[in-house]
Amino acid sequence: MPTEPSWTAPLAEAAVDATVRVPGSKSITNRAYVLAALSSGSTLVRRPLDSRDARLMEGALTALGAPVEHVDGGVRVGPLASGAGEAHVDLGNAGTVARFTPALAALGDRTVRFDGDAAIRRRPLSPLLGALRDLGADIEDEGGTPGAPPFTVRGRGGLAGGEVELDSSASSQFLSALLLAAPAFERGVTVRLVGEVPSEPHIAMTLDMLRRFGAAPERDRARFHVPAGTLHLPEYTVEPDLSSAAPFVVAPLVAGGSVHIPDWPRETTQPGDWLRSLVAELGGATVFDTDTADGSGLRVSGGGSLPGMDLDLHEVGELTPVIAALLCFADGPSRISGVAHLRGHETDRLAALATELTALGGNVTETADGLIIRPAPLHAGTFHTYDDHRLVMAGAVLGLRVPGIEVENPATVGKTFPGFVDAWTAMLTRSA
Ligand SMILES: O=C(O)C1=C[C@@H](OP(=O)(O)O)[C@@H](O)[C@H](O)C1
Ligand SMILES: C=C(OP(=O)(O)O)C(=O)O
């Protein structure tokens, strides 16, 4: 991964007062691309995310035989075309690519090798590969850790489908992967979940998007059934990424003032929408505004002191780094729980946050499934980011109140938000 000099996260010299446009949702963009590739006709995906993870998905689908074209108004993705031969898929450190694309290879007829960054080799995958094998996929481990990249999928031109058991407790993306590909199996797929699944909103997102593309998924508690069917949706417009919006949403709680985020959806399956209730619990306010010069969106305001919080983030785990940074400024102790699976994210996020916040003077301890954060004054220092985009965002939040926070390798935020540093700097420049 390319690295660059560290970035001194700017201090908020005044209350914030800014409009911030955030890029398209990673989770929605990469689902739309996968569903488009599984469809009978092409889909124009409007306002998609353009970032490392989105480009990796575009590259994966191209390698698997789907045409992907950047056109006026978005990205057009066409159906997967059959074709023999060998292909290679670069997973980078994109969970969505690593989890969503092996099933597509198993349904095709190429021999496809999957590998990516060193970090993706350590992230959980084997329960999904096991379920795909149970459904008839031919997947060969290549040395290393069994059930982890690198591995090779030998497509046999289709799979019958049927019923399969899945443990999706390490990542909701295993379940989403089977559900997204299910309509292309001859008999569809029925998944019986064992254990709990985190990130429930992302499962709702998968079911919602399947329906929009014409599938008929059904859920009965831990049993999911998606019948075989033909998908097609000529156009799909991607919502702004509400998890990428998280640092901007919490900025007024730390610095005072308000931030307007255009196009925040009134209804959404994105986990980031939960931030609206968090802001209210922390003494801030959110309002949907319709008549600003920048169009309709969400206005977030804050200003008072922050109480300590007891938060189970099981359903919204990807928000943890930014929330942990925010809670360092609370005037009472906080506990974050329900996120043991974050140890298998871009990095072990619980260990990384405890280490980095402690090094800056924080009183932060790791628990088995979360963090305990007690009030303590923070000081200047380097905030290491472990090639994790959300740690860059967390470092930026710390810098609002603590002078001299040096965020290491800020470019790694390009996984989901390539223009983050500029957008953050502009928010503070306009507000000063
Ligand atoms: O399906 C998705 O798009 C995602 C699901 C979640 O994964 P986990 O369930 O592994 O946390 C989330 O953290 C990730 O950022 C995106
Ligand atoms: C866990 C995350 O990413 P991925 O899609 O790589 O799992 C994340 O974005 O917080």
From TrEMBL:
SUPFAM superfamilies: EPT/RTPC-like. Keywords: Amino-acid biosynthesis, Aromatic amino acid biosynthesis, Cytoplasm, Transferase. PROSITE patterns: EPSP_SYNTHASE_1, EPSP_SYNTHASE_2. It is found in: Cytoplasm. 3-phosphoshikimate binds at K26, S27, R31, S171, S172, Q173, S199, E318, H345. One of its GO terms (molecular function) is 3-phosphoshikimate 1-carboxyvinyltransferase activity. InterPro entries: Enolpyruvate_Tfrase_dom (IPR001986), Enolpyruvate_Tfrase_sf (IPR036968), EPSP_synthase (IPR006264), EPSP_synthase_CS (IPR023193), RNA3'P_cycl/enolpyr_Trfase_a/b (IPR013792). Phosphoenolpyruvate binds at K26, G95, R123, Q173, R349, R390, K415. One of its GO terms (biological process) is amino acid biosynthetic process. Pathway: Metabolic intermediate biosynthesis; chorismate biosynthesis; chorismate from D-erythrose 4-phosphate and phosphoenolpyruvate: step 6/7. Residues 14-423 form the Enolpyruvate transferase domain. It catalyses: 3-phosphoshikimate + phosphoenolpyruvate = 5-O-(1-carboxyvinyl)-3-phosphoshikimate + phosphate. GO terms for cellular component: cytoplasm. Belongs to the EPSP synthase family. HAMAP family: EPSP_synth. Monomer. Catalyzes the transfer of the enolpyruvyl moiety of phosphoenolpyruvate (PEP) to the 5-hydroxyl of shikimate-3-phosphate (S3P) to produce enolpyruvyl shikimate-3-phosphate and inorganic phosphate. This is 3-phosphoshikimate 1-carboxyvinyltransferase.
